Structures are given as structure tokens and as C-alpha cells.
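Incident log entry.

Two folding requests arrived from the same account within the same minute. Monitoring flagged them as a possible duplicate submission, but the sequences differ. Recording both here for audit purposes.

Request one:
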Amino acid sequence: MLGKEMVKRELTRLDVEVENYSELFEIMAKIFVDLGYACDEYLERLHIREASFPTALPVEPYPIAIPHTGAKAILKPFIAPVRLKKAVKWNQMSDVEKTTDVRMAFFLGFKDPEEFVDLLQVLMFNFERTDWVRSLFESNSEDEFYQLASDMIWDVDERIDLCCK
């Protein structure tokens, strides 16, 4: 199940106001647990995972985080796109000593670890599409934000065609 059906409208959030990513984790974990997407240990596992393996991707010009846990914390697969009202400091995936200002996160909930690699490839391709990412930042409603997020390019052949032009 790797496609736009993973992006969940009921988990999409726009202009969330937090002071740090830990606050964001608390808000989103409650939503995931309450709606049956994650188990009660999700928040704890998310913090442990983030402390060991930070998830901010310093993609230019808009860094994006992809917080996630192991598959055991997930009850139903999901992608939850979240845009923050203002940027928060987040440790980089590529250099844990560096932080970057993040205003967008795609929370990932996956049950099949093999799917995770494919999902990362899809996300990385799309995160480098500056026009697409800019449209996410410019969206005016949660519905528009959700639609744009779910309309990312999923198909490997389409990604290859765009890369080779």
C-alpha cells in the first residue's frame, strides 16, 4: 500500500503552533493514538527514535522532517503531513550535531519495514521538487494542503521520466 491512500486527511494539520518538535510529537501522538493509528507507546518510541536518529532533512530551500518509529508502534499505516506556524529547531538526519529550522513534517507510520525504503525514495524525490514544496507552504486550507501532499509523484516511472528530462 504505497500510494496516495497512505496520506490521511484526518491526520493532516496546518499551521500548528509549537515551541519545539517535542510539543509537536505530543500533539500528533495523541491524535494518532486516539484515532487508532498508533499504540499507546507511540510517543515514547518516537522520542527514543528521534534522540538516536534525528529526522530533519536539510533539503533546500525548505528543510522537512520525517518523524517515525519502528513498525511495532503502528496499528494502521499512514502519512500525516503537518505544516507549522513557525519554524522549530530540529536535529539533522545527515549530521546529528547540526540543527535546521523546520516548518513542515511528514509523520510516517509504516508496518512493513521494507516499504519504508520505497517510501523514503518517494519522499526524497518529491521534497526536492521545489515548486511542489512551495505549493505546500502556500496552501490556504487543510483541504488544499492535504490534496497537494497526496498528489506527490508516487509512480517510479513518472519519477524517472521527470529526472531524465
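Request two (distinct sequence, not a duplicate):
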Amino acid sequence: MQEKITALFDERSFTQLLENVQEGVITGYGQIESSLVFVVSSDKESMGGSISIGHANKVIRLLDKARAASAPVIFLLDSSGVRLEESAQSAQGLGMLINAIAQFKGIAPLISIVCGNVGGAFSTICSLCDFNFMLNDAALYINAPLSVKDSKEDTSDSKFQASAGYVDYAGSFSDITAKIRGLIPHIPLSYADSRVMNDIADDYNRAVDIEGEELNIASIFSKISDEGYTFSYRDGFSPNVHCAIISLGGISVAAIGAGGSDEGTYLSGQDVEKATDFAILADQLDMPVLLYLNYDGYERTIHSEVCLRRRLSRFAKVISQTEVPVVTVYGKQAVGSFQVFAGNAIGADITYALEDSNISLLEAEEIKKITGIKESNSLEDMLKCGYLDGVIPKSQLRKYLISAFEMLYTA
């Protein structure tokens, strides 16, 4: 792992701690993009990277230093598991390790990289982290690979884990290093002093061409972001909702986009869960939220009837109680009640519609069947009643968003 640590940090910046304590783990600190970052790395060359009380104590000492410095921690994980020859003491060590990381959560960002074998209860470390990466050939699992009942799929591989929402990005270590180096300047290094504002060269008033790309949320986010920067959150999970950290006028923004299917986007409970989890992370990071809605309604399945109301109420609670600014943009199509949960009545500070937006609680044909008339509410009506704060040209989307977030975020 030593070569991976060296590659991750700025040149000659890494300092190892407790180097003579061989407990299957390497700890230390250094700089990434000139920012202080701590690291915990499994050491396969020492006891297979196995976990014990000594292992846990070494990690806890590192976390104490990171807490005092209010600095992020990166975990490079590859372990043979608990140290079986130590029996209950080893299980105690694993519990101590998980508890220490859980207690640290909320102090500063936590990042995991699954570099090899990460299984059983040890794998919950990744779920405690804010951002998760995985090497293509690594294994992440609760149950042993290929032991899952009625499944012939390898549920431990990176493709499955990304689709299940446990991994933000899977790739080579050099690709992951580049992703982390790009991410660090766009996230707070401490939750106590968390507002991120970077100097940028991009023109605040730059026009954007999103005509014909209403369904490609990822492309829209890239086009409006400073110099095209985006970091996708759980990209392989629930593709009807695209979540990404973007930059608008130097302000890091958590962008949540509902939409993306040319056959119609019908939101499921899983889609709403992804949006909610990202909104919670944004609140923890003190990062303003952009909600971009372009969808056709809710998924009409038994599973949605079972779970969707619960997920929607959780989303409403998060948006209603968040302490960060929220700006909502209604895209080309916003049909159904999800628009209400993103509106100013629940938590949005500013609501915009694009110039050709179709905003409706029901599809036009369904309204006609019920009332005998077409829906009468136009964008002008919505402006008059305060449902919208403005109707904006597509080409000026970036300009309006930067202006809104500058006003809300720096007030």
C-alpha cells in the first residue's frame, strides 16, 4: 500500500505515524492539493491487514489527531478480516474501530477506497464514509461472494456495488487518485468551517447551450458548472436521479437532477432515497442545493406503493429542515406532486422555471378526463400566485443560478 499512499499525496508530503507498531495498518498524514489530509491504510504485508485491538487502537490514535486538526480522513482498505487467533479480542477490536469512525463522522469528510478484499462487518466502514471509491478488481461484500441465495451474480464486484449505491466511482487507482484530487478543493476540509468558495476564471455570465439536452441532466450540470467540473455521487445507482457536486461562481453546490429517460422518467422510492441521502450530505457539508426537475410522474408499481410515501416524507423533512440555501429549477417537464416537495412552500428559497417548462400536477389528458377542461395554470399564473420567482431563458441558466446562490450563500 505504501506506493498507493505515495501516489495519493502531494510529492514528499506524507509522514507516517507509529511506524514501528506493526498491527496490519499504516497511519499518517500529508497534503493533497496543498490541503491537510490524514490516511488509514490496510497493510497486507503485516498480518494480512487483519483487525485486532492493537489495530483499532492505532487507528483511533490517528482519528484523534484528525479530530484535533479538523481534517479529512481517507481509508485505503484491503484486509483478510478479523485476526481469528485472537478470537473475541479481535471482534472487540473491530467493534472499537467501527465505533471510532462513527464517532468521527460529522467532524470532517471521510473517504474510502476499496483496494482489495473488504468483507463482513468491516465493509460497513465504507457506508460510514461520505465518498466511496473502489478498484475495478476489488471485492466489497457482507456475505461471501457467490453465496447469496438465488443469485449467480458476483455481488462483491465493483459493477454490482456501484449499481447498489455503495460506490461513487470504480476504476484504476490512478483514475481514483485524479477524482479525489479534483474533489478535495470542492468540499469543506472541516464541518466547523465548511463554506467552500474558490477563485475561478470562468465567466459568470457565460451563456449555456442546453437546447435539446433536457433529458441529459449530467450534461446540463457540466455545462453550467465552472469550467465543466462535476463529481458524480453514486453514479451507477438509480440513474433517474443524477446527483453531483458542481461549482457555480466558485461556490460548491450539491446538484440534484430528477430526469434522464427518453421513454419518460417516473420516479421510484429508490430515486427519492438517493436524492434525500445527497441532500443530507449537502446539509452536513454546508453546501447549497440545486434541485433540477425534469420528470413525468411517479413509478406505478407495487414496490412504489409500499415505499414511496415513506421516502417522500423523508425527503420533505430534509428539505424543510435544511439550513443551506435551496434553489429549484423546473425543467421542460415537471408532472406530478414531486414538484411540491421541491417548491418554496416546503423549503426552496428561490424557484425558477425555464421558459418552456410544463408544470402540472397531472398529465393534460388525465386533467381533461376529470374536469373536462385543460389545465388553466400557465407560467404567468404561477408567477402571480408566488409559486415561481421567475421564468428564465435556458441560455441564462448559469447566470441566474450564480446570482441566486451568491445572494443566498454569502448573506
